[in-house]
TrEMBL record:
This is D-Ala-D-Ala carboxypeptidase VanY. Transmembrane segments: none annotated. Residues 54-168 form the D-alanyl-D-alanine carboxypeptidase-like core domain. Pfam families: VanY. The keyword Hydrolase applies. The keyword Protease applies. Gene3D superfamilies: 3.30.1380.10, 3.30.200.180. It comes from Paenibacillus glycinis. Keywords: Carboxypeptidase, Hydrolase, Protease. GO terms for molecular function: carboxypeptidase activity.
């Protein structure tokens, strides 16, 4: 099938890489984020550290689905300590915490709106059942532990057992299977050009295409599809066969 894409799409979607080398693209940040304290209907299965936390309703629902599953296994002391941060808030944090502990405005995944910091009322996430459960199971719900202990050389960020990023299925499943962080997964897709995976009985084919200008992609598969940029040089087309 053929798919028309614009250059802009390199900087839109759930797979955008945001790190010290790749800022949040202009217009690519979450604009649907709401204050969760004022939208208590979205607080399903988790609490809030304070009254300033923002998240898009869509991401809050995805997170709720995941923590509901955890509650079914007796793990249910989740609190969210940070979600979407606008650049003003990020700038404040950067000034307070310093460069060792915070990213400058525009370079934090929190400015993108697809990440959240999760805590446990039982203690540190590195020890709490909530942290252990998420580390093992988050991939089933499209989330990934973004800064694991064994990948600090790749991410450039110290171990953050609380920071989870939404990338969506089937990507989180492949990342878990290969023990990839987002940097590694996007590099893998670019090198392979193509990947196939079956998750929950559904088969997907994933293709990487470089995109330098508005163009038409010739995708050698047919089905419903999602498209996301990588925020650097191309797009990933995920076809459900
Ligand atoms: Zn975080």
């Amino acid at each position: 099938m053929n798919i028309d894409v614009t250059r802009d799409q390199v900087h839109r979607g759930d797979l955008l890489l945001v790190n010290k080398d790749n800022p949040v693209p202009e217009g690519g940040a979450e604009t649907e984020a709401v204050n969760l304290y004022r939208h208590k209907e979205l607080l399903d299965g988790f609490g809030l550290l304070d009254s300033s936390i923002m998240l898009s309703p869509d991401l809050a629902e995805k997170f709720s689905t995941m923590v509901d599953a955890a509650a079914g296994e007796g793990v249910k002391h989740f609190i969210v300590s940070s979600g979407y941060r606008d650049e003003t808030k990020q700038d404040e944090l950067y000034r307070q915490m310093g460069a060792d502990y915070a990213m400058p405005a525009g370079y934090s995944e929190h400015n993108l709106g697809l990440s959240l910091d999760v805590g446990s009322t039982l203690g540190e996430m590195s020890d709490a059942p909530e942290g252990k459960w998420l580390t093992e199971n988050a991939w089933k719900y499209g989330f990934t532990l973004r800064y694991p202990a064994n990948k600090t050389a790749v991410t450039g960020i110290l171990f953050e057992p609380w920071h989870f990023r939404y990338v969506g299925l089937p990507h989180s499943a492949i990342m878990a299977d290969h023990d990839f962080v987002l940097e590694e997964y996007l590099a893998y897709l670019k090198a392979q050009q193509k990947a196939s995976v079956t998750v929950d009985g559904k088969t997907y084919e994933i293709f990487y295409f470089p995109v330098a200008e508005d163009t038409t992609l010739h995708v050698p598969a047919k089905g419903s599809y999602d498209i996301s940029g990588n925020n650097t040089d191309g797009v990933i087309v995920t076809v459900r066969l």
